[in-house]
Specification:
The protein is an alpha+beta fold. Helix content is 49%, strand content 11%. It has two domains: 117 residues, no CATH class; 323 residues, Cytochrome P450 (Cytochrome p450), CATH 1.10.630.10. The protein has 19 helices and 14 strands. The strands form five sheets. The protein has a five-stranded mixed sheet with strand order 1-2-8-5-3, sandwiched between helices. A three-stranded antiparallel sheet has the order 4-14-11. The structure holds protoporphyrin IX containing FE.
Length: 500
């Protein structure tokens, strides 16, 4: 056996050279990472179809990847081959990072509080319409309060997510076309946004051809909306297209129509599976803990009951002041972060700090140019060294004794009694945290507030209307999709709530 190159991280043992650890990683990345950590520590390299992927675990590992300079660790080099055929040219990872950062700022303008205030009522209305019309909720519609019905949670959440995102951010034209051509195009595009596309960008498959056709048609669809609006069609002040049409790059030029179109597609893809997966997991958890679902309902009663025994609609500002709802979502994202692997491609040899791994002669490992680096916040979010009862879903862990929820979020006492600073809130306090469902650093999610608004409104609207139960055992994770979804069966039983 040749001696291992001690300046490089240890390589995970594998039998087949090119294939490497693809099976172990692909089937259950978390289990794979935890067992690698036992053998090799927090830093190791595994082979994934010829790629060399260096994983750095824990809060410090997250910080190493997510806090790395974009000149050293590149998101576009890691992702563009499979995102650009889906989103389209000249946006996100198809442009130099500085330009994408400008585009992110434009999107932030559309994600304003002022816009959000108009969204809660729209989302509530969409969910109620859905419950009143979708065949899965026949028992609910029959007005028979004693009978239980059931629904496949992911199918329902996928529909509710796209209905509510299109009614709000995406805009009226997209919402109006959901029942027509738009859904088909979305499905074809989505069929080309899978782990297979990530691993094998150039296969001669029908799904790739469908993806390319759908991208072109969807891009044209958005461009047409923009042209019509320019010609004075309607008033759409509160949506994302309107916001993007008013922005200018630093050099003074406006966004081209196809850039706006492609940013809209990118936002659709970024928000759809992440939100529908998170909503599915939240409802599954609530269904498995009727006591917490009941407490969530009581939180609604406490704040919104009217003298005639009904629950009035809530505003965006009120939604943000509901500690249990917030903790339920936060805790679900701890156990079920939709994105398990955050990757960058290494542009220059990079030294891993000695605090992270077994040191070489100068106290560091070197991750060579051409490797990928990978952060997995899902590991630190479920690490028994950090969290008491790490695998138990316990929203109460996020509330402090006085119930001043927001303060409790900023620090958490780990199993050794040490206070950990999360750096929550608008001002980031850095990228070293064990809790990062929305990532960290320059590529951090900008959809977090929207996701909380969308998920929060969907969940309370459902909880106001029905009781939930889980009759099967709690579903396992399906890691074969880009976003971690619950495996089937993922059926929730429901019963119309009695208002008395
Ligand atoms: C980035 C998670 C919803 C738009 C990210 C990243 C994560 C994440 C982990 C970092 C990716 C990386 O560093 O490579 C989530 C979760 C969501 C969610 C858990 C819901 C529960 C949304 C929504 C939108 C959105 C609703 C759009 C409205 C974005 C954008 C980025 C991003 C634009 C930036 C990508 C970059 O800078 O490279 N998200 N996301 N996300 N997300 Fe989200």
């Amino acid at each position: 056996l040749a001696p291992r190159d001690s300046s490089k991280p240890p390589v995970v043992f594998h039998w087949i050279p090119f294939f490497g650890s693809a099976a172990g990683y692909g089937d259950d990345p978390l289990n794979f990472f935890f067992s690698c950590r036992e053998k090799y520590g927090d830093v190791f390299t595994f082979i994934l179809f010829g790629r060399k992927v260096t994983v750095t675990l824990g809060a410090k590992g997250n910080n190493f990847v997510l806090g790395g300079k974009s000149t050293a660790f590149s998101a576009e080099d890691a992702y563009t081959h499979f995102t650009t055929p889906v989103f389209g040219k000249d946006v996100v990872y198809d442009v130099p990072n500085e330009l994408f950062m400008e585009q992110k700022k434009f999107v932030k303008v559309g994600l304003s509080m002022e816009n959000f205030r108009t969204y809660v009522g729209m989302i509530e209305e969409e969910v109620e319409d859905f419950l009143r019309s979708d065949p899965a909720f026949r028992v609910f519609q029959d007005n028979d309060i004693n009978e239980w019905g059931s629904f496949d949670v992911t199918t329902v959440l996928a529909e509710i997510t796209i209905l509510t995102a299109s009614r709000t951010l995406q805009g009226k034209e997209v919402r109006d076309n959901l029942d027509k051509s738009f859904s088909g195009l979305y499905n074809d595009l989505d069929g080309g946004f899978t782990p297979i596309n990530f691993l094998f960008p150039n296969l001669p498959l029908e799904s790739y051809r469908k993806r390319d056709r759908a991208q072109k048609k969807m891009s044209d669809f958005y461009v047409k909306i923009i042209e019509n609006r320019r010609n004075g069609d309607g008033d759409h002040a509160q949506d994302m297209i309107a916001a993007l049409m008013n922005q200018k790059y630093r050099d003074g030029r406006s966004l081209k129509d196809h850039e706006i179109a492609h940013i809209m597609i990118a936002l659709l893809m970024a928000g759809q599976h992440t939100s529908s997966a998170s909503g599915s997991w939240t409802l599954l958890r609530l269904a498995s803990r009727p006591d917490i679902a009941e407490a969530l309902y009581q939180e609604q009663v406490k704040h919104f009951a009217t003298p005639d025994g009904k629950l009035r609609s809530l505003s965006y500002d009120e939604l943000r002041e509901l500690p249990l709802l917030d903790a339920v979502i936060r805790e679900t994202l701890r156990l079920h972060p939709p994105i398990h692997s955050i990757m960058r491609k290494v542009r220059h040899d990079a030294a891993v700090p000695a605090t992270l791994g077994a040191p070489s002669k100068d106290g560091t490992y070197i991750v060579p140019k051409g490797h990928f680096v990978l952060a997995c916040p899902a590991v630190s979010q479920t690490d028994p060294l950090v969290w008491k009862n790490a695998l138990t879903w316990d929203p109460a862990r996020w509330s402090d004794p006085e119930g001043v929820a927001q303060q409790a979020y900023d620090t958490y006492t780990d199993v050794n009694g040490e206070k950990i600073d999360y750096g929550f809130g608008a001002v980031s306090k850095g990228t070293e945290s064990p809790y990062q469902p929305f990532g960290a650093g320059r590529h951090r999610c900008i959809g977090e507030q929207f996701a909380y608004l969308q998920l929060g409104t969907i969940i309370v609207t459902i909880i106001r209307n029905m009781e939930l139960r889980l009759t099967d055992r709690f579903p396992d994770n399906n890691y074969h999709t880009m976003i971690t979804m619950p495996k089937k069966p993922r059926t929730i039983s429901y019963r119309r709530r009695k208002f008395d």
